[in-house]
Amino acid sequence: MQNGKRAIWLLLLVVVLAACSITQNVKPVTPAALGTREICVRENKSVRESFLEAYKQALESKGLSVRVLDPGAGLTACPLLTTYSANWPRPTRRSASW
Asked: Which of 10, 20, 41, 63 is most buried as measured by Cβ atoms within 10 A of its Cβ?
């Protein structure tokens, strides 16, 4: 029985360590490498409009011209296309504790 528990703990340790070994290398794109100064944003109607405005401002601050596309626009609608999503925390109900 002791060997069974030890095997389970060893298996759990291997799984945890394997999950920690994932790495990813990301290279930022420079404006010169884009080949265009226009970027299209496919609108996401399920996200607050204020998020889209802030996203547009952030892109424009990088020197890009932003064009907003309809949500149904295809991937080939613009040479440089970006999409976005956002998760807003739901307010929690707090009960009064007296």
From this structure: 41
Bridge partners of residue 40, in order along the sequence: 67, 81
The 10s digit of each residue's pLDDT in 41-94 is 999 999 988 999 999 999 999 889 999 999 999 888 898 999 999 887 777 776
d(CA 68, CA 45): 12
Give the Cα separation of 60 and 68 in Å (integer).
12
What domains are defined for the chain?
A: 33-88 (3.40.50)
Rounded Cα gap, residues 44 and 85, in angstroms: 7
DSSP 21: T
Tell me how far apart the alpha carbons of residues 89 and 29 are, in angstroms, rounded to a whole number.
31
